[in-house]
Design brief:
2 domains; alpha+beta; four-stranded mixed beta sheet
Length: 258
């Protein structure tokens, strides 16, 4: 969204009559094709979840990808792909999501379904729970197969922020011990029958986002939501610098922090 500067003045404070309409700003982090002033809940949202062979997007691979499209608080469409990673699935990863080599035998490679996956994101606000994880894997896979469409969807553009309900859960439920997806879903009365399966996790996370939207501290405007999320991320990152934790065992390979 482009918004005219109401004062028509330069940073010096000096007023220049008649030029306010020439001074434009763009909301940072929003998809340009979606009105930043509109209610984000009324816009299509493509909620993503991936299951992988490990935690490193540079070396590990996606083995399942789910996308759930929502709008106005309702689920519109669900998509799911089992993907052959081109390598054995480590036992420690299978212990998390339950996906075995036999489950992906004969399934397409990421390259074979990349175009189909990208089509689901067209014109939609991208979102994921602990979005850094899912986004990094998706972009790494797209880069790996050389997918560079002339008009990439918002999810593929690095200047577009993904909505991440975990950021808001950490703020609104800061006194709770855990804001992991399963715990947040249970807390909000949202069903999650098959945890750590891509489409089930994506749908539950979208429902969590819609539930959090009822809190007045969550901005309704798309641009406002992204700016508040950016502020909270900076605040939470700063707080982590002062955390002092005793050494702990490394987390499971595909676990997502709360």
């Amino acid at each position: 969204m482009k918004v005219a500067d109401p004062c028509g003045c330069f940073p010096t404070g000096r007023h220049y009559p008649g030029i306010a309409h020439l001074l434009k700003v763009r909301a940072v982090g929003v998809a340009s094709e979606i009105d930043a002033g509109s209610a984000w809940i009324d816009q299509p949202i493509a909620f993503v979840d991936v299951e992988t062979t490990g935690r490193d997007p540079a070396g590990d691979r996606i083995i399942e990808l789910g996308i759930v499209i929502g709008r106005s608080g309702e689920i519109l469409t669900r998509y799911n792909w089992l993907i052959h990673p081109g390598r054995p699935i480590p036992a420690e990863s299978t212990a998390i999501h339950g996906i075995k080599d036999a489950d992906v035998e004969g399934k397409p490679s990421f390259a074979e379904v990349a175009e189909e996956i990208l089509g689901c994101f067209k014109g939609a606000i991208p979102a994921a729970y602990n979005a850094t994880f899912d986004r990094s894997f998706l972009l790494a896979e797209l880069e790996r197969v050389g997918m560079r469409p002339r008009e990439p969807p918002p999810a593929m553009r690095r200047e577009v922020d993904w909505v991440d309900p975990l950021t808001f859960a950490r703020e609104l439920y800061k006194n709770e011990e855990s804001r992991a997806l399963g715990d947040m879903a249970a807390r909000l009365g949202i069903s999650l029958e098959k945890a750590h399966r891509a489409t089930d996790d994506a749908e539950a996370a979208l429902q969590v986002l819609y539930a959090l939207a009822k809190d007045p501290r969550v901005p309704r405007a798309y641009g406002g939501l992204i700016q508040e999320q950016r502020r909270l991320v900076r605040q939470q990152d700063e707080a982590r610098k002062f955390w002092r934790k005793a050494p702990a065992a490394a987390p499971p390979p595909t676990s997502k922090p709360s």
